[in-house]
Amino acid sequence: MAQEPDSALVEAAAKGDGDSFTELCRRYYPAMVAIAHSMLGDRHLAEDVAQQAFAAAAVKLRQLREKGQFAGWLAAICRNEARDILRSRKAIRSIEGRPATGESNENAVCESVRAALNKLSASARELVFLRFYDGMSYEQISAVLGISEQALNGRLRRAKKNLAEYLRRDGYDEARL
Amino acid sequence: MNEQKDEKWLDELISRSIDTSEPKFDAEQWKQKHPGEFQALVEGGARRPLAARFGVLSIVMRSRIAQVAAAAVLVIAVGLFIARLDHDGQQQGEPEQWAKSPAEMVTSASLRTAYNRGGMEALEEQCDRAARILGQGLLSMKDVVDESNG
């Protein structure tokens, strides 16, 4: 089953095959966690959001007309779930009048890198997370983003160049680190 | 600084800064956490969703424009139905339906109904019809009106 193409698994899952669906989940779990992580900045929350996205996908799977575009469709569901979380977080913050839990214990370098990542566009940040998460092939990342591997390489290079620039502006460079 | 240096330097930094270890999907735990959704997937395969069973309905449910168009068609259909009911109601008031004899055609109620339906023309037409039944030239409209006013 692990070798089956997405479209065959989606077809079987849409006919009620639970194992095919869980295989799809297993295949795209790292990618969905990476996407949610890039938006929320919280790994544990990202895992919850990815699982919530699978639940929504299970309900809506029969509405998917292009079975071969499952990965991109799932990624869109995952982004929507993460956006819902972001909106509710903002609401809580505005009610309480203070930011969510701080990260004061983390070292300054890591904080600067995360700050630089936050300065990237949402799509560039998502790409960096997808690339650096373990367990994902370029082919899977291409399927999730709906772009060619060549385009993926180009975008990744630009994102990293911007990231390096932001860090240098903040006083970090390879000599100091 | 060249791009290769950037790559190595950054790759290391990013890996240090964010937890990028591979997340493992636990299918059993997920099923326990989302039993309703999983059941919907497994059981839904056996029976098609309601909308899919009806071809037109499934098309309507997919598109927002189709939904609006379907709503408009429903409103027009209901409007036509109501108009038809009103028309039938008016037809019940026509003398042909209930005033069978010339005497009934020229009662004040019957003449009023005819006037309401089509004004003086309808009134005259009804009188003519009554006159035709009784014999041409026997009655004029003036005679009928005079007669009914006593």
How would you characterize this protein structure?
The complex is a heterodimer of chains A (177) and B (150). By secondary structure, chain A is an all-alpha fold. Chain A has a single domain, classed as RNA polymerase sigma factor, region 2, helix turn helix motif (Rna Polymerase Sigma Factor, Chain: A, Orthogonal Bundle). Chain A is built from 8 helices and no strands. Chain A has helices spanning 6-14, 18-40, 43-60, 70-96, 108-119, 122-132, 138-145, 149-169. The longest helix of chain A is centred in the middle third of the chain and has 27 residues, at 70-96. Chain A is globular and about 55 Å long. With 150 residues, chain B is an all-alpha fold. In chain B, helix 5 packs across helix 6. Classes of the chains: A mainly alpha (177), B mainly alpha (150). Chains A and B meet through helix 2, helix 3, helix 5, helix 6 and helix 8 of A and helix 1, helix 2 and helix 3 of B.
